Amino acid sequence: MAQGHTQILDGYRVLDCSIAMAGPFAAQRLGDLGADVIKIEPISGEWQRHKPAGNAKGKRINVSFLSLNRNKRSLAIDLKSAQGKAILLDLVRSSDVFLQNYRPGVAARLGVDYETLKAINPKLIYVSMSGYGESGPYVTRPGQDLLLQAMSGAMLSVGRDGEPPSPAGQYLVDAVTAYTAFEGVLAALLHRERTGVGQRIEVNMLDAIVAMQMQEISVHTVGGMPQTRLGEPHAHPYIRAPYGVFKTQDSFIALSSPPLALLAQIVDAPELAQIDEETGVWNRRDEIFAITQARLLTNTTAHWLAAFEAVDIWCGPVYGYADIAADPQIAHNGTMIEYDHPTEGRVRTPGFPIKFEQTPSVVRRGAPLTGQHSREVLKELGYDDARIDALIAAGNVGEERL
């Protein structure tokens, strides 16, 4: 793994006190840009270490934790003990960012709320992530991805009318919230560079997933257009037909709003050419979908991709994860990266979506074991071996070695 590489956030220290996906993912992105991210976790390890998605357990580190915690060091401490809390406060003095996604009220009970930490380090960027906000009628509700997807309105934009709403097949709200927090930290650091002033940032999952639907919700609230699912599985409530995924003779194809006259010619469906391009593509969407679907069933995906691409009709294959891993554009872009992890072996995961010409992201270290860097971090704070050994023996600090 690369060492000594100059990156944009070199010299910045981030304390990651978050769990699950949204917070750790945001902190990992900061680590990918070069920040020294110290993951503060309990002696027993962060929650995600014990709850792998898909039951992908790994060797000593499960795949969920591995995927969300590269480029971090782990410090395992008991924050409920006076000694553990003292260590955290020592770190705050020399840190730039503190990120937590505790349930509302927990940070204050632990004595790591913004006002307490600001008194120690006025320049601190303090990020508080929550499900629904820091106050309000839903403040005690669980901030879980599926529940926020359901509440966001997005599920009623896909699928057939009368059928159950359709959730995304990803932890969509967690990912959007992570990138929202990541963006907020970068903006706050820029503000601090200009003014010398730190600040608190609040990010919640509900606002993040609603803001992501800027165009769709505005079409409803400003344009007055109803959000209506159709009889056929049209892929978006505010786009003309045909728009969606269609079955072919051997698999599926995605088709994006081609001119009807041209589509009619390619798929041999003259009835499509008789439908008005201005109004019919909206008020006859189910009919257009059904005609298109029937014609696409007569040949293979490869046939239709070639035929559509030859006349510049927007289309594409429908991939699974195995297809992504084998795609030539993915390979060309370097979308997936490989590196050697000390316990998990050769690892292949999604890499870095932003390409910096001068300061490219690198994997400096893989996801750590619980407390793998406890001793290293405490030595940086000036603790000697005897004191560290005593803290570990007392159960205030955890250390797992390679």
From TrEMBL:
InterPro entries for this protein: CoA-transferase_III_domain, CoA-Trfase_fam_III, CoA-Trfase_III_dom3_sf, CoA-Trfase_III_dom_1_sf
One Pfam family hit: CoA_transf_3
Secretion signal span: none
Keywords: Transferase
UniProt entry tagged with the keyword Transferase: yes
GO molecular function, one term: CoA-transferase activity
Protein name in UniProt: CoA transferase
